[in-house]
Specification:
2 domains, mainly alpha
Length: 499
Amino acid sequence: MSQIKKLAGQTAIYGLSSIVGRLLNYLLVPIYTRIFDPAQYGVVSEFYAIVTFLIVLYTYGLETALFRFSSKSEEKEKVYSNSLFMILFSSSIFSGILILFSSKISNALGYPSNANYIIWFALILAFDALTALPFARLRQEGRAKKFAFLKLLNIFSNIGFNLFFLLYLPAICKANPQSLLNTIYDPTIGVGYVFIANLIASGLTFIFLVKEYKKIVFPLDKVLIKEIIVYSIPLLIAGFAGMINEALDRAILKYLTPDKTTALYQLGIYSACYKLSILLTLFVQTFRYASEPFFFSNQNKEGSKELYAKVMDYFVFICSLIFLFVMLYLDIIKGFIGKQFHEGLFVVPILLMANLFLGIYLNLSIWYKLSGQTKYGAWFSMIGAIITITMNFILIPIYGYLGAAWATLICYGAMMVMSYFIGQRFYPIPYHLKNNLLFIAGAVVIWLVSKYSLQLLPISISAKGNSSSLLIFAYHSFLLLLYIGVFWKRLNPNLKFSK
């Protein structure tokens, strides 16, 4: 029991640091979308979309390989030493190539005057990759508090330097033209300060963990290194497939958009509106941290499959509720991003539903983890990647970023359906499909009712004034409570209301 409590506590710390970190990083979005115009924000979005692919290449599954080979070998320090050397060597090579060809790469990406962007990201990627294995080591040793401290240090440093470069320096230099700070502030750098802040934060984190590289011991074990590489290659492929599903649309939207003159502008609009699905994304992320230990701990208990089905009911209900909440109060929530980004709000329901499907897929994926059929996880990711690539190339040239949103929905919807039907064959779980479909359909119907009924009511959704706004807020609140009342009762049919 003490070990279980320890595991639960560590899981909470790991989950909290990751979720809080993600939430804090989201808080930079209101700043970015008010300081930068959509085209400038599009530059930020494009580079970070590309980075999600490159970090998979830089780490190439070595974290998982470290866990696997350390558990099989009595010489854990030997495995760690060889793994550290591998990632140090490969990161130096990859970043060296990026720096050497930075001018050509920046030209190819359409930023001929910004080779420095490539150099900065080459260093960011190197620092992040070099800290990946020390972070994995902390998890392996159960040092959850140090893990969380360093993760949050990185995040707070990134936020702090963003605020320093984007808000503090410009204000001070404008108010005091003779200030010495003018010698370090260059307004022409613009969005580059976002990347510089990230570079400093990643560098600081690396400094805290650099002593880990003293544990590299020579001579290296060439046989072990070969085994690790062979094991890691499939993880690299699966990682790329997952990143295609998650970020390809933002990486290629600029190149597929029909009107090239507004490509970065559209990318900025799309990326900002994507951030409005934060509530649903955070809930799914939280659920992932809590669910896997729960599912595995109950695997051999009587009635476990019925329990899994009930968990799915609650999960779909809450996800549908979050979808409805965001859409009913979108007029308020849209204030999270700058007004010039509001023209893309019509993609928000599509992206929310896509993330709902992704959450269901992740919930369903427990079947192949419990049954040992993990190869299906790789297959689903790769098929999803093919769908993503195909749909983006078909839809973006026709519909722009709306096509990218639909491609995301189609991909996650297909992966969800595949996982359900194949899972029922190998590890049947009696999910309550009717209930789950009703939860989703009910949320969509109530949202549509709210959207179109206001046109028939005395109050107009475009009306000005506090009284109209309060009436609309009250109306939407009534619809939300109606949904909760109706479907909570369906979720708990034996629920009795006291008089």
